[in-house]
Amino acid sequence: MPELPEVETIVRDLRPILVGRRIVRARLSHDDVLRGITRSRLVRGLAGKTIRQLFRRAKHAVFDLGSERLIVQPGMTGSLTVERSPLTSDQLRYAVLRAELDGGDELVYTDVRRLGTILLLDPKHWELYDRAIGPEPLDENFSADQLGRALQRSRQAIKKVIMDQRHLAGVGNIYANEALFAAGIDPSKPARRLGPDDHRRLHSEIRRILSAAIRSNGTTFRDYRTGVGEPGNFQLELLVYGREGEPCRRCGTRLTGTHAIDARISVFCHHCQS
Ligand SMILES: [Zn+2]
Question: Is the pTM of this model over 0.90?
Answer without folding.
Answer: yes
